[in-house]
Amino acid sequence: RYPQLFDALARRLAHLPQPRILSFGCSRGEEVRALRARLPNARITGIDANPAAIRAARKADGHALSRYVQATAPLPGERYDAVMALAVLRHGDLEAFAPEDCSAVMPFARFAEAIAALDQAVEPGGWLAVFNAHFRLADTPSAAAYEADPFRMTDHAAPDVIWGADNRRIHGAPYGEVLFRKRPVP
Question: What is the distance of C-alpha 148 from the center of its chain?
Answer without folding.
Answer: 14
